[in-house]
């Protein structure tokens, strides 16, 4: 990156170079324009801009650059003339891709749309260019490879990037338009979840992640050294959100990490994921809870459809999928009904197994539905039994594109019945004493559920691996970066 | 709770009793009115209501109850007459405090305001009363003791409740008007933080809590068993939010738990707390970052002042404090300036120690200020040195009522300087390799900070222990409930 120009006097030598590291030496009174704001209205203006070198191509006395900011990019030109010397063009052409530069340039309207850039109607004629941060010459992965749809370009021998390479170099992989879109949409899911529930009168709570006893019976839990003793990482905020209901908060939600020490290496399991949790008191029937949750999901789907269409389209370019379909009101089937229906359609499954199938999606033309009334035996001990049939329970799962995204139920709010159920599940009563005691001082009937954020994003976008919607995924084999 | 009325025929026997457990037996078409909606406009209406028995007092042929929902309560009366028998009054009088009941009652306007209730203009004349959930007869703490201001009633021998009793029985302690107000305000802080930053173009990110290497050098970190290896709990989202900046997200925030294995038993330390974290790229000077953060804090202070006045007043009744004062723009002093000023005022402190004092608050009449330019030696290795004086750094703390709530800085975005600084701090380069590598592919100048949610709530409300603003606090001695 250092050049010696001993033999030529360079008239433009103050117009380019590598800047000293920005260490807050001065408060420059300089407005930096955003790439997305480069439209024909700015034509013929001299502007400053900071962006990455997305691509660069030298051609005789000129160098074409594509400058990128997030999902936006613009074509820029450095050409030998009265504002740029041969040396300056050479300097620009030699800047490593992904380096960050400050450029001063005139915005020019173009005759023919630049199809390869987000800003199609203008280009920049660069008059000054300074490197703010240099990228290494060799990138561990190329952005254009990383956004290539699966299979495309295979015959030309063009590369795609495998998942481990992506994740190992996540800081580059996250720069692709696809990644930018996925995680902006994820941010939107959280916001829609919270805003919808806040409007419904829910209160946000913060629950501890380090706990003294494994709340759900003891399996699949991570152990933490805690000073001279040991503790566990919470597998869910279950106990705490229920305590908040017993403490009169009436309707609560929380967004936070949950930890599962399951040695599962599937497309939909993570050892740490973000739980969107809901718990609420109800009056007489737990379907009041189902209605609140399904309405919240529908508000999320609508918000995404209406406000994140650009992001959805961007992801679709690389990973094509059908638009997400949902009904109002949400389809709710009983578990046994669904099993019978699937049986009729020729799909066999154990009567008391988890039920996962896309068949219902096709039968009812919806990508979102609820299965209600699961067999009691397959649910946690704190699940309320069905009042009419003790083999079943007041519990439900919710599905997106045929995969489970939420598990929930009416909870047992009576300490005697809860004790009986825990004993039936052979749970050590001593370990869940404080949980059971929470219900001894008056507890309203209540229910709720926990939603996996990464699964919601994956399935909404029709992706096929939950690692695509977790910024820094954790599984039994991956703890970095 | 079982009564035998063998000798009297009770004409009202269907009008009271203990309900069977609500197990979602039926969808009752019954509207339950909220206590806060009980106003004179509802006078003479017959309504249904679900609430807790807050207090109960039998007096001859009648029983006065106070019924409570969260911070709202209303007086109710069961009196022998054509709608209630002697037995029914006796039944009502014997319901344990904190039990949850359904009542059918006529709303009556009262002549004289009921000063002891939130609903002062009406009372309820109960015609039916059913227990939905029974509380045990003995409560581990009394709500009226739990909201008594310190010192008050001491001469009459009235109890207050100590902190451990509160925390051991948090499910009851959280029912007090003070607790309800604190945690509703806390929910508001999170919402204001996120809404302000979202408006400023920040994106919410989710960062992993289980990490493979202790990011900040290795001290004070909790160890987790992770399948056949071990891992750590993140002491901050530092690495990850910086990676997001290097990945072009430009401005990010996150809200989530952070873990500190410090064996500190002070009023302001927790081993697990909620971090409100910010990181952003800036153009030329890190004061752009300070301005964004201080403006965010000011928006939070204004939002609380304007929308949470009821909660602030409620907490003030038990814990009196002055309203929180802040200036616009926020006061920013250089660290050395502040030390010199305090020296002049007679307060001595080491030149390179953490500076904590309420003096500045008094000198400038503000409860919120920034100290800028800390000595480099007291800051983490990734802190950018001051370009003009290598003894100092581009770092800052923010204070509320004289106590630190945020620590932040411009970060070193150059991998060579970062390596040099890590070596100077004797940090094993191998362990932070992926962190340093994040900056090798072009990194914009950036800075940020981390705010402690519980401290912000504590100090805004003028409370004196961070355990009051953590629902389920964790410290070296407390892991439950």
TrEMBL record, chains A, B:
Domain of life: Eukaryota
Residues annotated as domain Aminoacyl-transfer RNA synthetases class-II family profile: 183-481
InterPro entries linked to this entry: Aa-tRNA-synt_II, aa-tRNA-synth_II, aa-tRNA-synth_II/BPL/LPL, Asp-tRNA_synthase_2, Asp/Asn-tRNA-synth_IIb, NA-bd_OB-fold
GO cellular component labels: aminoacyl-tRNA synthetase multienzyme complex; cytosol
GO MF annotations, alphabetized: aspartate-tRNA ligase activity; ATP binding; RNA binding
Any GO BP: aspartyl-tRNA aminoacylation
One Pfam family, short name: tRNA-synt_2
Subcellular localization: Cytoplasm
Listed EC numbers: 6.1.1.12
Keywords noted in UniProt: Acetylation, Aminoacyl-tRNA synthetase, ATP-binding, Cytoplasm, Ligase, Nucleotide-binding, Phosphoprotein, Protein biosynthesis
Catalytic activities: tRNA(Asp) + L-aspartate + ATP = L-aspartyl-tRNA(Asp) + AMP + diphosphate
Keyword set includes Metal-binding: no
Protein family according to the UniProt entry: Belongs to the class-II aminoacyl-tRNA synthetase family. Type 2 subfamily.
Function, as annotated: Catalyzes the specific attachment of an amino acid to its cognate tRNA in a 2 step reaction: the amino acid (AA) is first activated by ATP to form AA-AMP and then transferred to the acceptor end of the tRNA.
Subunit structure: Homodimer. Part of a multisubunit complex that groups tRNA ligases for Arg (RARS1), Asp (DARS1), Gln (QARS1), Ile (IARS1), Leu (LARS1), Lys (KARS1), Met (MARS1) the bifunctional ligase for Glu and Pro (EPRS1) and the auxiliary subunits AIMP1/p43, AIMP2/p38 and EEF1E1/p18.
This protein's name: Aspartate--tRNA ligase, cytoplasmic
Species: Kryptolebias marmoratus (Mangrove killifish)
Phylogenetic placement of the source organism: Eukaryota, Metazoa, Chordata, Craniata, Vertebrata
